[in-house]
Automatic annotation (TrEMBL):
UniProt subcellular location: Cell membrane; Endoplasmic reticulum membrane
Keywords carried by this UniProt record: Cell membrane, Disulfide bond, Endoplasmic reticulum, G-protein coupled receptor, Glycoprotein, Membrane, Receptor, Transducer, Transmembrane, Transmembrane helix
Molecular function GO terms recorded: trace-amine receptor activity
The family this protein is said to belong to: Belongs to the G-protein coupled receptor 1 family.
Gene encoding the protein: TAAR1
A GO biological-process term: adenylate cyclase-activating G protein-coupled receptor signaling pathway
GO CC annotations, alphabetized: endoplasmic reticulum membrane; plasma membrane
Record's protein name: Trace amine-associated receptor 1
Chain ranges of the G-protein coupled receptors family 1 profile domain: 40-302
Length: 334
């Protein structure tokens, strides 16, 4: 017998017909993703907040991005998990709109942060002498403000004003059912949402990282050509340059992970309305989770590439952060 989400309501959505073993394994898998996302990003937040040596402009951007990823894991993923497994929404229609808006906002905020981080890295690697004057705390705070406010205005405006449904009212009325929570985009809103949330900031990042890569290669060649006599004088510059280049490389990998995780979802969001919504909802749902994985991977990339993050992690795990003056610990050589 078909199970409904709301047994007593006419026009109820149909519950998923998966067996209990599939349901349980899906819950276990998704809970693992949620825990990894929350714990990993919380570690980044604690590390950068606690250790004074990590209080740099770039790290404040990374701290803000980790907060976005943490909130996605803590607030959004648990409700999405129930919806994905049960195919039902048990939290009411208003909360459905709030959840959808916040989901779009945080996913968009994540890529806005990455775009600004790439701009920060560009000045650090390509114009190191003027970096501190160009990228100061005020500039970083403006970047963080834009990264939160533009996605918030865009996401909440679109969902609460039903702008995503303009031109797709018929299809929405056809598939709308009680006890469901899904977002439908019209042809126009699907393209606009994908361009604002993904394609514009994505192209900005790709363009900037291409420039960083070519300039870093050129600088590396010129450093190799330095004669032995100048070696001692150049050593300090060489070490700081290597660190900046490694940071750019790490953030390049983070950007690559982001593009791999989110591009399938945004591609189908833009094209699905033009294909008469032929893509099965279960595939769209799977791609949303593939996108969520990006928030899980970011701290893992830090742990893999940053010595300071591994040292901070060790101190947090062993409770050393509660010791007096632990915030002054040097996690890397200046």
């Amino acid at each position: 017998r078909m199970q409904l989400c709301c047994e007593s309501v006419n026009g109820s959505c149909i519950r998923s017909s998966w067996s209990n073993s599939i349901r349980v394994s899906m819950y276990i898998f998704m809970i693992c993703i949620i825990l990894a996302t929350v714990v990993g990003n919380l570690t980044v937040i604690i590390s950068i907040s606690h250790f004074k040596q990590l209080h740099t402009p770039t790290n404040f951007l990374i701290l803000s991005m980790a907060t976005v990823d943490f909130l996605l894991g803590f607030l959004i993923m648990p409700c999405s998990m129930v919806r994905s497994v049960e195919h039902c929404w048990y939290f009411g229609e208003l909360f459905c709109k709030i959840h959808t808006s916040t989901d779009i906002m945080l996913s968009t905020a994540s890529i806005f942060h990455l775009s600004f981080i790439s701009i920060d890295r560009y000045y650090a690697v390509c114009d190191p002498l003027r970096y501190k004057s160009k990228i100061n705390t005020f500039v970083i705070l403006v970047m963080i403000f834009i990264s939160w406010m533009v996605p918030a205005a865009f996401a909440f405006g679109m969902i609460f004003l039903d702008l995503n449904l303009r031109g797709a009212e018929d299809i929405y009325n056809h598939i709308h059912c009680a006890g469901g929570c899904f977002v439908i985009f019209s042809e126009t809103s699907g393209v606009v949402a994908s361009i604002v949330s993904f394609y514009i900031p994505g192209f900005v990042m790709l363009y900037i990282y291409r420039k960083i890569y070519s300039i870093a290669k050129r600088q590396a060649r010129s450093i190799d050509a330095i004669s032995q006599k100048k070696m001692r004088f150049e050593m300090k510059h060489h070490i700081s340059f290597c660190r900046e280049r490694k940071a750019a490389k790490t953030l390049g990998i983070i950007m690559g992970v982001f593009l791999i995780c989110w591009s399938p979802f945004f591609f189908f969001t833009a094209t699905n309305p033009f294909m008469n919504y032929a893509i099965p909802p279960i595939l769209i749902d799977a791609l949303v989770w593939f996108g969520y994985l990006n928030s899980t991977f970011n701290p893992i990339v830090y742990a893999f590439f940053y010595m300071w993050f591994r040292r901070a992690l060790k101190m947090i795990l062993f409770g050393k952060v509660f010791q007096q003056d632990s915030s002054r610990t040097h996690l890397f050589l200046e």
